[in-house]
UniProtKB/TrEMBL annotation:
Signal peptide: none annotated. Its EC number is 4.2.1.115. The keyword GTP-binding does not apply. This is UDP-N-acetylglucosamine 4,6-dehydratase (Inverting). The keyword Nucleotide-binding does not apply. It comes from the Archaea. PANTHER family: UDP-N-ACETYLGLUCOSAMINE 4,6-DEHYDRATASE, UDP-N-ACETYLGLUCOSAMINE 4,6-DEHYDRATASE (INVERTING). Keywords: Lyase. GO terms for molecular function: lyase activity. It comes from Methanohalophilus euhalobius. Residues 10-281 form the Polysaccharide biosynthesis protein CapD-like domain. SUPFAM superfamilies: NAD(P)-binding Rossmann-fold domains.
Length: 322
């Protein structure tokens, strides 16, 4: 697998975020890229990242995915792109919907165009379970971004550029996660929970980044890769973090789901199952039907949802994850 990164120029959009830091750490420690270009808007965050890693293979490029011209220049001589840039906070996207569209959708179009015209080999987008049956604008923009990436393969035509996506659940302890909130509320003795029936998929940042890296090695172009990860009830998560605390149920918030879905019944009809992940294959003429012959077909009506998962986190499991 080292061959796809070794000696290559890599561009990471949104590179100063939590995912970007962990991706940079793993790539620099375990692979030998020619360069890793961090593409993001904030000069101060880039400075902090530069001080943290101090690696001559790192390049820091100020730019926004909304800026097509800047992306074109940034992708010059790039072999691999990981597209992690996005507006991710659900309330912020609801309050600033046009900005969310301009970054998450228009920015994705710019990444696709720049990658094709610069003859990039592989482009992987980071998606989310909230893109499935979206009930908020953030999820809707990520759903569109997924569709754009899958169909991006028709735009590349006979060129070598291939596009795929990874879709996974909540990252333990990440910015915006409920876990830091519960840890803070623990000090006051009361945790606020929207609904006692709520469930979520969970994985660590290391697991998420390694899944993206492994998927990039396997990708043929057009797939959506989904890891098999455990679920946990929000009430069980609260008990694990603050077993002595009181629980205050506040009611489900606008744009929030009781349960998250990572594969729908309709997607399952053209998906394959492997030992530790699923692949949703594209339903388009460009797809090689022999690409995943080792995978198993899913049964009729299969749905991969956090409330009917076969794997569940215990309190001990969760504590080992953060």
């Amino acid at each position: 697998m080292k061959d796809i990164f070794d000696g290559k120029n890599i561009l990471l959009t949104g590179g100063t975020g939590s995912f970007g830091h962990k991706f940079t750490e793993i790539i620099l420690n375990n692979y030998s890229p020619k360069s890793l270009r961090i593409y993001s808007r904030g000069e101060y965050n880039q400075y902090l990242m530069q001080q943290k890693f101090q690696d001559e293979r790192l390049r820091f490029l100020i730019g926004d995915v909304r800026d097509k011209d800047r992306l074109y220049r940034a992708m010059n001589d790039v072999d691999i792109v990981v597209h992690a840039a996005a507006l991710k906070q659900v309330p912020a996207c609801e309050y600033n919907p046009i900005e969310a569209v301009r970054t998450n959708i228009d920015g994705t179009v710019n990444v696709i165009d720049a990658a094709i015209d610069n003859n990039v080999e592989r482009v992987m987008a980071i998606s989310t379970d909230k893109a499935v049956h979206p009930v908020n604008l953030y999820g809707a923009t990520k759903m569109v971004a997924e569709k754009l990436f899958v169909q991006g393969n028709t735009y590349s035509g006979k060129r070598k550029t291939k596009f795929s996506c990874t879709r996974y659940g909540n990252v333990v302890g990440s910015r915006g996660s409920v876990i830091p909130l519960f840890q803070k509320q623990k000090e006051k003795g009361t945790l606020t929970i929207t609904d006692e029936k709520m469930t979520r998929f969970w994985l660590t940042l290391d697991q998420g980044v390694n899944f993206v890296i492994n998927s990039m090695e396997k990708m043929q172009g057009g797939e959506i890769f989904i890891p098999k990860i455990p679920s946990m009830k929000i009430t069980a998560l609260a008990d694990a973090i603050a077993p002595e605390a009181n629980k205050e149920f506040t009611g489900i918030r606008p744009g929030e789901k009781l349960h998250e879905i990572m594969i729908t019944e309709d997607e399952a009809r053209h998906a394959k199952e492997f030992s530790d992940y699923f692949v949703i294959e594209p339903e388009h003429p460009f797809w090689d039907k022999n690409a995943n012959v080792d995978g198993n077909d899913l049964h009729e009506g299969f749905r991969y949802s956090s409330d009917i998962n076969t794997e569940w986190l215990t309190a001990e499991d969760l504590k080992e994850m953060y």
